[in-house]
Amino acid sequence: MTSLAEKIARAAGLPVSGYFVREYLADTFAQRVSDVAVNNAEVLKRDDLLLVNARVLAIGLTIETGGAERAVWVAEPPKGSGHPDVGRQLAWLRVSKETMKPLAEKPLSEIVAHLAEKLPGEEKEVILADYLWNLIHHNPDALKEDFALLGKKGVEGRMHEQAAVVGDARNLWIAPGAVVHPFVAIDVTGGPVVIDEGAEVHPHTRIEGPGYIGKKTILVGGKIREGCSIGPVCRVGGEVEESIIHGYSNKYHDGFLGHAYVGEWVNLGALTTNSDLKNDYTGVKVYVCGKVVDSEDTKVGCFIGDHTKTSIGTLFNTGTVVGCMVNCVAHGGLMPKHIPSCALVIKGAITRGQKFSDIITTARTATGRRKHQLTEADVALLEHVRKLTRPELVEASRRDRGALVGQA
Amino acid sequence: MTVEERVINVTAKVLHMDPTEITLDKSFTEDLGAQSVQSIELVAAFEEEFDIEMDEDEALAVTTVGGAVNYIKTYLDK
């Protein structure tokens, strides 16, 4: 319901005065937070500061803003929690305007490194979203807290008299403009459910809480099981469990998506399915930035980047990572476990079979269908992602091309 | 074998044709009936044959057998 930044701001009781992001993300990100400065060093000079690590997952957390300057470090996470062994990680810095004054012109990374070393430190139990599966794992708790703090419940939209709520109806909020059709079951015994403004739930849909159905999202029938955040403007059907589906993505048809993280403008063809549990119940290993990481979790689905499309019948193995702008054409077997951005997968082989101009044309078509325009900043970001990940794509396509040619 | 012969042999293998049916002026799609997936396979097969990495935007813009020969020759001469 709330973004990670909104959760942090809520935990601190302060509005966000500025964001600092990787430079190649800045223009696109600025489009989304037009009222707040992005990568603008001026915000570092204005007042006393709270500089928060954007990976802080502010669930059940209070960030103290008063008191002396501090570098607050993340207390060592318990073993088996799926977080990296990278030594101490900074959670946030509380710093005065006077301390900042001589530093403000330096690059942010230098400022943070300097303050982390100089300020008195303390440790606090803080959850960091080090990997995407951490977000999925903690999403049910985040949904419950968001609902508790939302302060809204009941039916402000329309709920057909032949739709049913299972459990305490005070755990449900149907926002104004949302419509729930007959033969829908909303089970709030495991947690609250929010159906946000303009969303529509078609007949033969079962929603289990905790869950969030975003603005103007349409559920077209199926099982939306616990721990899902979907939307805005998604079209979702089939079976979805403990998954995060970002805006404007579609999984219209049958097929199972579990413990998955899906980016924006993704389209999953009918019967696209992922495994989220290995047959031997061991921990799932996931490809992350050139190495394989043990998630230390037995329930891990797939991770799919923006603008990726899958054909009918696409099958993803447990812990599969799919980049942005990928086109997966099913062949009856499992897709490769790591598919670099811009790949075209045919006959199970990763190829460089997509022209970038065609990718952008398709992206313009997809966004246009939802009355959105792909901006120059959006295209520049996609182009940057393509360049950033190109070595992975070249290596994978070189590895797979022999097998592809052998099948010809 | 010359580049021309190797390109024709690779094309014949991917498109399941007799090499004698393939000439340099033939279009992969219109004359030889290559489907879109086979176009991708052709690029992969040429890369495998010549041990090169072609730019996909340029490679997929090539429409004829002769065009592929010229493109690969240019690439090999670099």
Beta-strand proportion of chain B: under 5%
* Strand numbers in spatial order across the main sheet of chain A: 9-12-15-18-20-22-25-30-33-35
Number of helices of chain A: 7
- Give the CATH topology of chain B: Non-ribosomal Peptide Synthetase Peptidyl Carrier Protein, Chain A
Describe the fold and architecture:
The complex is a heterodimer of chains A (408) and B (78). Chain A is built from seven helices and 37 strands. Helix content of chain A is 24%, strand content 27%. With 78 residues, chain B is mainly alpha-helical. Chain B has one domain: ACP-like (Non-ribosomal Peptide Synthetase Peptidyl Carrier Protein, Chain A, Orthogonal Bundle), CATH 1.10.1200. Chain B contains four helices and no strands. The A-B interface holds A 329, 344, 346-347, 349, 351-357, 394, 397-398, 401-402, 404-405, 408 and B 13-14, 37-41, 43-45, 47-48, 53, 56-57, 60-61.
Give a quick set of tags describing it.
heterodimer, A: 408 residues, alpha/beta, 10-stranded parallel beta sheet, 7 helices, 37 strands, 24% helix, B: 78 residues, mainly alpha, Non-ribosomal Peptide Synthetase Peptidyl Carrier Protein, Chain A, 4 helices, 58% helix, 0% strand
